[in-house]
Amino acid sequence: RSISIFTNSYVLGLTLAAGIGGLLFGYDTGVISGALLYIKDDFEEVNRSSFLQETIVSTAIVGAIVGAAVGGWLNDAVGRKKTTLSADAVFFLGSVIMATAPNPYILIIGRLSIGLGVGVASVTAPVYIAEASPHEIRGALVSTNVLMITGGQFLSYLVNLAFTEIPGTWRWMLGVSGLPAVIQFSLMIFLPESPRWLYLKVR
User: Fold this and answer.
1) Contacts of 115 (CB under 8 A, 6+ apart)
2) Any residues with CB less than 8 A from the CB of 14 and at least 6 apart, and which?
3) In this structure, which of 57, 83, 157, 165 has its CB flanked by the most CB atoms within 10 Å?
4) Which CATH number fits domain 26-194: 1.20.1250.20, 1.25.40.20, 3.20.20.140, 2.102.10.10?
5) For 119-129, what is the mean pLDDT?
6) pLDDT tens-digit map of 2-29
7) Are 90 and 181 in contact (CB under 8 A)?
8) Quick one: CA dihedral 102, 159, 111, 95, positive or negative?
9) Residue 36, exposed/middle/buried by CB under 10 A (0-12, 13-18, 19+)?
10) Which of these, 111, 113, 122, 109, lies nearest to 83 by C-alpha position?
11) Are 133 and 196 in contact, with CB atoms under 8 Å apart?
12) CA distance linking residue 114 with residue 109, whole number of Å
């Protein structure tokens, strides 16, 4: 009997919930392009320094590199579920720091925090989806993570457009990224641990 992606709504829901990690990655990489224009308006030192501008943009990528390196170890140590929950918490903390940053240096710390979160999520989401999927449709389900990344980039442009005329502009653009992290955290609490990880831990 052939299995389609839509045969099991539970597995599909699990895939979409885990894929929010990809959405966060895409959103984070896309939103800064619009937000930086308004950050320069608020912080004169950023407007004068191309180095600060480059640091604000690239710090998230640095965090993602570190997060991805640590993510593999976390996945093996505590499991895919707890790793995802931890990544959401770090990402949410980073979004709050960015939204309330009183100066560009605190903003950079926030960018580093969300980078760590998306780095961990980027290695966890596809592993979790793959290990929880029926083998017949595993490839299709894992590929939804990539779809969520590009969807997150598209969403970031829409959010940038929506907040262009709103007081606080860039703070809303960067801060609203905490919402998907809260949604994923809430969903992941009710989802099971990866069966493969449980098997490897003789559980």
Assistant:
1) 28, 59, 60, 61, 62, 63, 64, 65, 66, 67, 94
2) 129, 132, 191
3) 83
4) 1.20.1250.20
5) 92
6) 566 667 788 888 899 999 989 999 999 8
7) no
8) positive
9) middle
10) 122
11) no
12) 9
Percent of the chain, pLDDT > 70? 97
Task: State which amino acid sits at residue 147.
Answer: L
What global pTM score does this model have? 0.90
**What pLDDT, on the 0 to 100 scale, is given for residue 202?**
84
Q: Would you say 152 and 27 are in contact if contact means Cβ atoms under 8 Å apart? A: yes
Average pLDDT over residues 59-83: 94
DSSP 8: -
